Amino acid sequence: SQKIEQNSEALNIQEGKTATLTCNYTNYSPAYLQWYRQDPGRGPVFLLLIRENEKEKRKERLKVTFDTTLKQSLFHITASQPADSATYLCALDEDNQGGKLIFGQGTELSVKP
Amino acid sequence: SAVISQKPSRDICQRGTSLTIQCQVDSQVTMMFWYRQQPGQSLTLIATANQGSEATYESGFVIDKFPISRPNLTFSTLTVSNMSPEDSSIYLCSVEFVGGAGTFFGQGTRLTVV
Fold first, then answer.
1. Which of A72-86, A87-101, B66-80 has the lowest mean pLDDT?
2. Model confidence over B9-45: pLDDT tens digits?
3. Do A89 and B102 lie within an 8 Å CB cutoff?
4. What residue ranges in chain A does DSSP mark as E strands?
5. Which residues of B touch A95 (CB under 8 A)?
6. Residue in A with minimal Cα distance to B2
């Protein structure tokens, strides 16, 4: 069956360091992958979308990589700040038709000052 | 992106009652979806809200429990019927824009059933 896994343990890092979050998938051939930020009690906020033909994408302090051979995406936050503390979710389109997403369980990031 | 507004943002309901959640988008979108996020869990797709026709439900979700309307390209409702405490969750609508720019979510409706 289709499966998405994110590192389940909370990630604790020091302010200013780079946070790296992992998303692995099996039994998929996704055309693209999306990353979201979610704060407690709120809806997910879209951060980045990376397509299968894109190895890397950047947006300000965020960087996402997508390795379709390894079936893995890495999400990096450079120069992390306490305000970056949240849960980060990766999601794949279930059938590459748009919008029907399957989510990983999320990784909780805590950035300490 | 778009502004996606959900109402109510939260509610506490008695078991056996029903709650209708509204989702309004500030631009026309082709695809709208409803998700559920149970406490401590990730998001699960309930159904695709189809404009002018019946919603398409995912495995484990049925129309009698989660009736959905989508009268036009900017608005949809999800009703949680005959609620039980197990229905306590965050319910979220999402939209997908043509061109694959990403899937965007409303702020969610936090439902507590007592």
1. A87-101
2. 999 999 999 999 999 999 888 889 999 999 989 999 9
3. no
4. 3-6, 11-14, 19-26, 32-38, 45-51, 56-59, 62-67, 72-77, 86-93, 101-103, 107-112
5. none
6. A46
